[in-house]
């Protein structure tokens, strides 16, 4: 990657209008949707940008999960037999056509892996599986709500939690 590029969280100062990867949906996402997803804690967006704020490439990260049954057996031999495993989703990844062939896409993947191991993906909601109705009542008192299909599985959107507990409650 060019030494004058740094990878950082997408900021308002980044020049998004000039970005063009050749895929309209990816260009439009960066220009029009990424900031809303960040505010709503649906995903985080990271950009490779130069000192002037020009974006050479970007990717998004979000928390996700995968059913253990969807993985090949050789991958699951030494894993706990949980039905769902945590995952990090690279939702989008794009490199501006002006910067292609410089290894930026590979560097973005490596950066995503580094951030994933440091728990950087966005988290929309906290999820709990209450062991019984008494535990579920405890969580409901703290703002959690049940999923439609599972009364003992509850969720609390992070944005709601920050309003309830205040940002200072989270170091």
Automatic annotation (TrEMBL):
The keyword tRNA-binding does not apply. Transmembrane segments: none annotated. Residues 7-167 form the N-acetyltransferase domain. SUPFAM superfamilies: Acyl-CoA N-acyltransferases (Nat). It holds the Pfam family Acetyltransf_7. It catalyses: glycyl-tRNA(Gly) + acetyl-CoA = N-acetylglycyl-tRNA(Gly) + CoA + H(+). This is GNAT family N-acetyltransferase. It comes from Mesorhizobium australafricanum.
């Amino acid at each position: 990657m060019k030494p004058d590029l740094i990878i950082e969280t997408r900021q308002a100062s980044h020049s998004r209008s000039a970005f063009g990867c050749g895929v309209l949906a990816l260009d439009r996402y960066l220009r029009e949707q990424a900031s809303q997803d960040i505010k709503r804690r649906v995903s985080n967006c990271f950009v490779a940008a130069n000192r002037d704020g020009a974006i050479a490439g970007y990717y998004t990260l979000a928390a996700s999960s995968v059913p253990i049954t969807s993985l090949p057996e050789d991958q699951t031999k030494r894993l706990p037999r949980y039905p769902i495993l945590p995952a990090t989703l690279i939702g989008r990844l794009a490199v501006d056509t002006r910067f292609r062939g410089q290894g930026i896409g590979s560097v973005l993947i490596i950066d995503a892996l580094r951030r994933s191991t440091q728990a950087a993906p966005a988290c929309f909601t906290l999820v709990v599986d209450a062991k019984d109705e008494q535990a579920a009542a405890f969580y409901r008192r703290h703002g959690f709500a049940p999923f439609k299909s599972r009364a003992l599985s509850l969720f609390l959107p992070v944005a709601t939690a920050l309003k309830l507990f205040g940002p200072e409650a989270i170091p």
